[in-house]
Amino acid sequence: MSHKTLFLQQSYEDCTRQYMELLEKQKMPLWDYVILTASNESQAQSYRMQIQYRLDHGMLPKSIHYAVLPDPDGKRVGSGGATLNVLRYIHQDAGSFDDKRILVIHSGGDSKRVPQYSACGKLFSPVPRLLPNGRRSTLFDEFMISMCGVAARIRAGMLVCSGDVLLLFNPLQIDFYGSGAAALSIKEPAEIGKNHGVYRVDEQGNVGGFLHKKTVDQLHELQAADENGNVDIDTGAVIMDTDLLKALYKLVDTPEQFDAYVNENTRLSFYADFLYPLASQSSLEQYYKETPEGDFTPELHECRTKLWEVLHTFHMKLIRMSPAAFIHFGTTKELRHLMTEGMEQFVYLGWNSFVNTNSTSIRSGYASGNSYISKRAKIGKGTYVEDSYVHHGTVIGTNCVVSGVTLDGQNIPDGAVIHGLKLGEEQFVARMYGVNDNPKECSLFGRKLSEPLWTAKIYPICRTMREAVDAALQAYEQGFPIKDSFVSLKDSFNMADVTAILPWQDKLDDKVRVESLLEAIDNKVDLKQAFISCGGNVSPRVERLLLREAERLDSRNLEQFSRKIRIYYMLSLVKETYMDNCFDTIGKAVLDTAVAGLECSRETKLSKEESIVRLPVRVNWGGGWSDTPPYCMEHGGTVLNAAVLLDGNYPIEAIARRIEGNKIVLASADSGAEQEFTDIKQLQDSSNPYDPFALHKAALIACGLIPYSENRSIEEITNQLGSGLYLSTRVINIPRGSGLGTSSILAGACVKALYEITGRRLEEDELYNRVLCMEQIMSTGGGWQDQVGGLAPGIKMVTSHAEVRQQISCMPCVVSEQTMKELDERFCLIYSGQRRLARNLLRDVVGRYVGGNPDAVEVLYEIQRSAVLMRFELEKGDVDAFARLLNEHWELSKRLDSGCTNVCIDMIFKAVEDLIDAKMICGAGGGGFLQVVLKKGITAKQLQERLHDVFQDSGVSVWQCQFV
């Protein structure tokens, strides 16, 4: 990249950043007025809509006074007449020009050489880059960004620009506090200057004269080129101080004078009539000969005489900007080339051949902006598509320009332009011509016309855009016959419903945004980043479309389920409440699969007097979180854990017992709560997390003893069972929040007890599903490893396949007696002395996974890998290698959830660091139990002594555990 390119890139980025800061808070002088000129009221109305749209969406500084001024009375008065109209407007509004900074963008042309921008105005033609808010830029947006820094570089006055030239420069190079005028120029080789206006400079550094489209030799002969062969190019940007503005305004300060200067007979030119007299080497005689915007008329001659008297007393300084560049949005041919093959030279500006489009393959060879393109459409190389729908079956040839149409299966020939316009209610026209055609000439697709293409009536008006496109293609086949009932490019421009342009573009932008977001969702990329790339916001229509898509998706289908939860996640970036929809969808999918086929059997009876189930707790080693929906649904889960006793006891207990009477009694020995239930509705409500009997109620429902929603009486149910039922739970001598999976294992104990007392056989996988069902009924979420860890004995690898309904497989690890003996000696549990604080952990970790957070996705993969390697090392008998993997898992756990540790946990591990080879939390961490692997030769007693020395009687202690 050249030094010039690097400079312009940095300047461009600086201007954009500065402008975005100005939108938040004005930190430097800004324009007091920004005024656009328009050719007629219809075009002016279109411009006003564009400006208001930007104000409504926070894209323009609100402190500026914006105005759009059409040529008075719809008469073409020239750029000079339009400038005088601006001066009158400001004087009427502000009373004077003193201390005013004014930006005027002349944008009232017909865009004859780029007809698709006639109605919207070339000033609002697209620029192929995304603004920071995710919207496609336009020339107007680029003007506002690049010129925002110029206001601070002038004391007061007016900057006049041409609306079809984009200047790239650094505003710090502009410094104008003098009198008269200043022309902004850039240095370019004479070879480029021959196609543009060039300034000739006098000895004082002022503009001495103007040279228009001279040859390279002539530029050198007229001393316009410097020793390096560079010339000062006229960029069309000129600054005028307040004295000069006042002098001009005096010429038109009465209605009569204004009418004399601003009319279609005079048609003053800003460049020929206002700037020429400011050149120091100009002459009145030559001034009279300068080519006007209209015709040479007596009115023009008289106005020029008076303008000379007023303006020739001022000078025009030349301000050279370098490095600098300008891009001229000239003809359709140039536009097509710029957007396709020519894009490479502007990549440094952040320009892209694909902006706001669902089609982004550079290898496709075409370019697209703000368009939806079906993957089953065929588009030729070198073609540019903007503001259009291209549905499947459409074939577009090479080197075409397609703008503002809906194509649905048509065939567009090579080198064609097709541009759609809405003219009125049920009135549409598709204008078709060649990319190389000049509408000012009498030629169309190589055929001679009897008049200029601009005025030839060759386009039929139709009731729909589809009909208009078909009619244009038919006219093409017939050689474009001229008919009085048809319209021309000029007619359609004047008849265009300009109010329809922005809504059409907005609708397309939203459609493309939806497709882009859905593509990001389906690819499971970082959704926060994708959201930011789309501007960090969505319109109400995008929100509605995404919601509609989510609502139609069937969560029983894994692919649709994945898309649905991520749509809600994406929307939660706009409104947090949508995260509830995301987790509700996950919970409902698990619940629906868990309760599928679940029935409250009318045949079930109590077959035993009592059933007592006692279970161990579990310690988690590898793969934790991979068992949690929706990760396990989309990738399958892989977990390594072990069942353990504490102090030689089974700490989890559930008792189901037959009792007399038509009642159900639930008891929680841990809390000392017991309650008799005779109302079915109370038993069916298990979603309150503070209800001491929520787990009991969920177990009754999951085991089919209480109907999930059916309204039956307790009396009917107990009569069917043959007696009343008592269900009690207890966790023996384990603090709450232990991290040992007690809640889920207790749920498993309840299920086993209820199945046993009713004499029903329960397969292993069904047992796990019943517990999963319970957790969803209770709205606690979570995975399946806890209950499997306590329900299945020993050290085991627990896995599931990627599917909505989890089928869990439990494979015991084949560990030698010697290795088990070593584990018994070296593995210890440490109670941290603190209860794990309630955190919104599930929502956070699962939310980051659903949102495609790269770190979360990577960690979830790696922890599964660790589980497999841990099993391998244990079965090979290498406890040291197992310990190293446990340490690695601990580091991964902290990456996934920084809250899994805290100062207290870190201090405990630090205090025993020299005694242990591995450390890990139990469960989600943040408190409860910790697990360590001791160094060889270190005993649990030594570990306890160290902990007591450091933490005394604070509760931090070693607990005896045995593998079962």
Automatic annotation (TrEMBL):
Residues 720-788 form the GHMP kinase N-terminal domain. This is Bifunctional fucokinase/L-fucose-1-P-guanylyltransferase. The keyword Magnesium does not apply. Keywords: ATP-binding, Kinase, Nucleotide-binding, Transferase. One of its GO terms (molecular function) is ATP binding. Belongs to the GHMP kinase family. Pfam families: Fucose_pyrophosphorylase, GHMP_kinases_C, GHMP_kinases_N. One of its GO terms (biological process) is GDP-L-fucose salvage. InterPro entries: GDP_fucose_pyrophosphorylase (IPR012887), GHMP_Kinase-Related (IPR052203), GHMP_kinase_C_dom (IPR013750), GHMP_kinase_C_sf (IPR036554), GHMP_kinase_N_dom (IPR006204), Ribosomal_Su5_D2-typ_SF (IPR020568), Trimer_LpxA-like_sf (IPR011004). It comes from Anthropogastromicrobium aceti. Residues 97-453 form the GDP-fucose pyrophosphorylase domain. The lineage of its organism: Bacteria, Bacillati, Bacillota, Clostridia, Lachnospirales. Residues 873-951 form the GHMP kinase C-terminal domain.
